[in-house]
Every structure is written in structure tokens, then in C-alpha cells.
Amino acid sequence: MAKAKPVPFVDPEASLFVHAAVAIGTRLDEMIAYEHVLDDVQEVFELHQMRIAAKRLRYTMDLFQTAYTEFSRYGRDFAATITQVKLLQEHLGEIHDADVLVPKLLAQISKQLSKSHLKDRHGDSLVGVHIIDLDACQGLLTLCAQARDNRDLSFENLRKDWARLQEQRVFEDLRKLLRSAITDETVAAALHEGDPSQSGEVQGVSTKLQAEASTSITDGNGGSANEPESDARRTKSSRSSGKQAAAEPGE
Amino acid sequence: MKRVADSLGEARDLDVMIQTVLEMCEKLPEEQRSGVMDLIDSLRAHRLECQDAMVSAVERIDSFDPVARFTAAYAPELAKSVETTGSDGESGT
User: Fold this and answer.
1) Measured distance CA(A163)–CA(A169) in Å, rounded
2) Are A118 and A125 in contact, with CB atoms under 8 Å apart?
3) Which residue in A57, A187, B20, B85 has the fewest CB atoms around it within 10 Å?
4) Rounded to whole angstroms, how far apart are CA atoms A23 and A14?
5) Which of A71, A135, A142 is the closest to B31 by Cβ?
6) pLDDT of B52-90, one tens digit each?
């Protein structure tokens, strides 16, 4: 199982929405990086990796869901996106189940067949249609075929749902939502201070926060969570006196 | 925590697999079931082995007392945070 991609920065001075945006953006990138495996039904290992990536994304979103529900106006959209990720996870889980089950069924067939390797009293191989339990083998083979058909169906459903999510721009909208929550929070904080004249400054802070988060929330057009730190972030990180850390949520 | 999660995950995966195979097996003609039942028996045996590992992992985490450790480790930070929030008269996310 591939290790989780490190979340680029954790800054105790930044808000929870900034952390959420960075962590979720990283996990989203991680899952989308496996998109190419949807072209090949036989990509057993890579599909498993995609399943793990989807699981990490979903659990990371679960972790921050209360924040979006309670402290932003995006709770409903955020929850709806979690439901979509969960759906992908289900398809990937069904594919994985078949990939685990079929080798066990084949190993059992192999055991059945090995029972047929008998010798007669002269040391010669026994041959005969009744030595092998063909019916038992047939039952196991039937299950293999069913598992394959179920897997094919799950793979097809995965492709369809993925295409639908891309068409509906669900991933892009999630990135926008993550950025918007940061902006709203910054504006709300300034209004709470009761100084509308600070609006210019608010905009500046908001832009800076967005820029920080955006470094990780790539737009899907080649940006990377592992890009070198910007000067602004380096300054901010150094202010945190080495508290910058790579967070790796559990499996 | 990882040990507990891994052992619970393995046990659950086996439970799901046994249930799935059983359901598939029931749809087979009677004479074709013996090989599948042998497989189910071996999965059940493996599941029993997992149970021991799972119980020992849970007992171990119990004695490790993660809640107390977590609270102790973060108490100073939490106290600082409450102090700051209190003096600012604000609450944040």
C-alpha cells in the first residue's frame, strides 16, 4: 500500500479552513492521479491504490465536515461531495473484493485438483473421471465467473460515475468551495472587528490565505501539492519556528 | 491504534467475504457446493485466528490509555488556546 502523500504544511497560526483546504486538496490530487487506471479493467494494483486514495480523501473530508456544516455556508455542498466520493469508494471496494476473492477460489480449485494426483498400488498415476470432484471444481469456477462479472459491472459503474462527476465539475467545485470558505471566514472576521475601513486589508489577507491554500489545492492543470514553497509561505513557516510538519492521516 | 484498526479491518474483511461466499454458494446446485464449503471452512479457521490477534490488540490499546495520553500531551496547548480565546472574547473554528 502506497504511503499517503504528505500534506505540505501545517501552520498553527493558520485557520482550520486553511488546514482543511490543504489536507483535502492534497487527498483529492492523490485520488485524481489514478484517473488513468479507469482505462484498463485489469489494473488490479492501481485500482487498489485508487481505492486507498479515495478512502483517505473521504476520511479527511469527514474529519472537517463539522467545520463546514457549523461554521460555513457550504455544509450541504460539502456533504453532497462526500456522498459522491463514498459512491466511488463503494465501486472501488467491490472491485477490490473480487480481486481478493478470485485468487482464493482459484487456490481452492488447485487444492481440489491436487487431490487427483494419486498412485495405484504399482506406483502408476491413477487416471479416471471419478478421481477428481468435477462438480466441486465446477462450483468454484462458477463463483469465479460471477465474481468477474460483478467486478466488470462495478468497474463500468465506476467509469460512469467518474465521468459524471467530471462533467458536473464536482472536483473543481470542491476546490472552489475550499477556497471560498477561507475567504468568507476572513471577511467575517474583519466584520466582527467592526471596522469596514479594513476591507482593503481584509481582501489582502484573504488573497494571501487563498494563495497559500491554492498552492496545495491545485486546479488539476498541472499544479502540484509538492511544489516548492512560495516566499510568502517560507516566511510564514519560519515564523512557526520549525513547527511545520508533514501530516499523514492514518489509513 | 493502527494495530487495532488493522486487526479489526482484517476480521471484518473476512466476515464480509465469508458472508458473500455463503450467499453465492447457496445459489449453486447442491452437488457443486463441497469445494466452496471447504473454502468457507478455511476462511472461518483464519477468522478464528484473527479473533485472538484482535482481542490482544484491543486489550493492549486499553492498557495504553490513548485518551489520557492525548489529553496530557495537548493539555498545555488547549489551555493556551482557551486563554487566548477568552481574552479576545472570540470563538473560532
Assistant:
1) 10
2) yes
3) B85
4) 13
5) A135
6) 999 999 999 888 888 899 889 888 877 877 776 655 544
